């Protein structure tokens, strides 16, 4: 789903027809398994919700090089320095969330791989690897870019910002707080990219209409269907600037 569709998708309830069995005997036999599955699902949903709110508040920190929550990504199972078309490495330096950083990597390694595998950033996500979903969006200066298709060499000497560069869990930015207030996240996987796109947009347009917000975010995919809440959050943040 994209922002061209105003429909908000809500999770199925326990009485939803799509969850009922045509065979009453099978349904009765599966009842115990369903209760167990529901308990596991509830725990998983709670954990996912907590993780989504953490992402909104920008807790994807690279302090101390801790990469516990930054899942390594690679198209071939190799390290990020080995991904891409070249095996030669170079020293690439850029400002990441206000801090000068240097990485010894292949120059054509996607910026996303360097952010996650080398810098320990878990805000930008690997979604499609084709610049189609927006989950990897970061800022290059004031401009939103798709880091999954951006060679790290192209940001040498420049300024890159992820969600943790906007605010922290203790002190989120107005935009991050608006996403929390509006409960814009369900699974939360797309939210980091949404926030970075919205941040770039609001730096250029401080008083957007609802339709302009939708157009700005229309290149981002959210399969959970929380589009209306996301637009509400951006509207709230725009009103506070």
TrEMBL record:
Name the CDD domains for this protein: fer2 (cd00207)
Output the PROSITE patterns linked to this UniProt entry. 2FE2S_FER_2 (PS51085)
Q: Is Transcription regulation found in the keyword set? A: no
Per its UniProt record, what InterPro entries does this chain match?
2Fe-2S-bd (IPR002888), 2Fe-2S-bd_dom_sf (IPR036884), 2Fe-2S_ferredoxin-like_sf (IPR036010), 2Fe-2S_ferredoxin-type (IPR001041), Beta-grasp_dom_sf (IPR012675), Diverse_Oxidoreductases (IPR051452)
Q: Which Pfam families match?
A: Fer2, Fer2_2
Q: What UniProt keywords are attached to this protein's entry?
A: 2Fe-2S, Iron, Iron-sulfur, Metal-binding
The keyword RNA-binding appears for this protein = no
Recorded GO MF terms: 2 iron, 2 sulfur cluster binding; metal ion binding; oxidoreductase activity
Which residue numbers delimit the 2Fe-2S ferredoxin-type domain?
90-166
Regions of compositional bias (Low complexity) in chain numbering = 67-84
Region feature Disordered, mapped onto this chain: 1-44, 66-90
PANTHER family in UniProt? BLR6046 PROTEIN, OXIDOREDUCTASE WITH IRON-SULFUR SUBUNIT
Please give the name of this protein.
2Fe-2S ferredoxin-type domain-containing protein
């Amino acid at each position: 789903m994209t922002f061209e569709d105003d429909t908000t998708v809500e999770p199925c309830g326990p009485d939803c027809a799509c969850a009922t069995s045509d065979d009453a005997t099978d349904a009765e036999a599966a009842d115990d398994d369903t209760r167990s599955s529901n308990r596991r699902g509830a725990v998983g949903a709670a954990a996912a919700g907590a993780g989504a709110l953490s992402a909104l508040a920008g807790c994807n920190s690279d302090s101390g090089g801790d990469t516990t929550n930054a899942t390594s990504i690679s198209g071939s199972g190799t390290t990020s320095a080995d991904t891409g078309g070249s095996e030669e490495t170079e020293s690439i330096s850029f400002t990441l969330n206000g801090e000068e950083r240097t990485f010894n990597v292949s120059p054509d390694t996607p910026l996303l791989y360097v952010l996650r595998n080398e810098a320990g950033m878990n805000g930008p996500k690997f979604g499609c690897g084709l610049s189609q979903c927006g989950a990897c969006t970061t800022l290059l200066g004031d401009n939103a870019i798709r880091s999954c298709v951006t060679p790290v060499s192209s940001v040498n000497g420049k300024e890159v910002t992820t969600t943790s560069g906007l605010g922290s869990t203790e002190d989120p930015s107005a935009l991050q707080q608006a996403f929390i207030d509006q409960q814009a996240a369900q699974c939360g996987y797309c939210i980091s990219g949404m926030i970075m796109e919205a941040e770039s947009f609001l730096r250029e347009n401080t008083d957007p209409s609802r339709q302009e917000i939708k157009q700005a975010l229309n290149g981002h995919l959210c399969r959970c269907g929380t589009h209306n809440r996301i637009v509400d959050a951006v509207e709230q943040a725009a009103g506070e600037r």
